[in-house]
């Protein structure tokens, strides 16, 4: 079975060693995913500090790397897409609405946003691009959600 996207042959791909900034951004992203809030354990720190120089020939000082915050990722999206970014109940999920762009333009915006997130050290493990639900359209147009006050239960 042929791959959906043709892969380059061995003589067509030029893979070079990453520069120090790329290594630092990748290390920051991995450290953020491995230990987003509590910090790295001694074992995680030891493994990451050994892994990066072995693979890239660039040492990484994990003490200098601060985890990427959700607020920082949201700012990258806001700036790149020029759109409002909404925090979700999941503490590491964000939603950005890019307006009424056509599918092609929305895909270009998404690709640009993913590239900027990667350059900022944000590792994206789940991404979707689609049309808003009717509830989301109603909320955007009216500023009210689709639930009536009697749907809410007093705590």
The best one-word shape is: globular
Helix content: 40-55%
SSE class: mainly alpha
Strand order of the largest sheet: 1-2
Strand content range: under 5%
| Number of contiguous helices | 5
Count every beta strand, where a strand is a DSSP E run of 2 or more residues.
2
Number of domains: 2
Q: Would you identify the regions where 5 or more consecutive residues have pLDDT less than 50? A: none
**Distance between the terminal alpha carbons, to the nearest Å?**
56 Å
The radius of gyration is: 20 Å
Overall pLDDT level: 78
**SSE arrangement, N to C:** HHHEEHH
Largest sheet: 2 strands, antiparallel
What's the helix and strand layout?
Layout: H1 20-34, H2 42-56, H3 70-81, E1 85-87, E2 94-96, H4 103-119, H5 134-142
Antiparallel strand pairs: 1-2
Provide the descriptors you would attach to this structure in a database record.
44% helix, 2 domains, 155 residues, mainly alpha
How would you describe the overall organization of this protein?
- The chain is mainly α and 155 residues long.
- It folds into two domains: 1-67, no CATH class; 70-151.
- The chain contains five helices and two strands; from the N terminus they run H-H-H-E-E-H-H.
- It has helices spanning 20-34, 42-56, 70-81, 103-119, 134-142; strands at 85-87, 94-96.
- It has a two-stranded antiparallel sheet.
- The radius of gyration is 20 Å and the shape is globular.
- The model has no long low-confidence stretch (mean pLDDT 78).
Describe the structure concisely for a colleague.
The protein starts with 19 loop residues before the first helix and ends in a 13-residue tail after the last helix. It contains 5 helices and 2 strands; from the N terminus they run αααββαα.
């Amino acid at each position: 079975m042929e791959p959906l996207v043709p892969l380059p042959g061995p003589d067509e791909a030029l893979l070079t060693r990453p520069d120090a900034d790329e290594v630092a951004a990748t290390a920051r992203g991995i450290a953020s995913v491995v230990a987003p809030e509590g910090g790295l354990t001694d074992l995680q720190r030891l493994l990451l500090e050994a892994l990066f120089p072995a693979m890239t020939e660039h040492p990484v000082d994990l003490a200098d790397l601060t985890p990427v915050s959700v607020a920082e990722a949201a700012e990258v999206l806001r700036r790149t897409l020029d759109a409002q970014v909404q925090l979700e109940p999941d503490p590491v999920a964000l939603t950005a609405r890019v307006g009424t762009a056509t599918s092609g333009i929305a895909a270009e915006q998404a690709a640009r946003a993913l590239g900027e997130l990667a350059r900022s050290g944000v590792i994206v493990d789940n991404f979707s691009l689609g049309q808003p639900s009717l509830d989301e359209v109603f909320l955007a147009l009216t500023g009210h959600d689709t639930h009536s006050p009697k749907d809410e239960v007093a705590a």
